[in-house]
What does this fold into?
Amino acid sequence: MCPVTPSSAPERFRYNPLSYRAFKYYGATDYFQTNAVRKRYADFRNQGLFVGSGVIEADCKTVTGQRLKQSGMHWSVRGANAIVA
It folds into this structure.
């Protein structure tokens, strides 16, 4: 979801701070209602799954770094992107 800024809000909300706050509130409410089925964090934790992305991001960085930084390796941008993708 894109962050809502005054310039990205519909024009009728841009110049009235109360209307703008209401716009942000109802936008967030709609987002959470629409995506509630994906936000079953307690169920996921009970299954032993990670909820945050930090562990996955760190692992990807470590694995990618190990593959790209092995002794004697030199990569072009195109070749490195092929490994990452």
About this structure: DSSP finds five helices and no strands in the chain. Residues 1-39 form one domain. The chain has a mean pLDDT of 76.
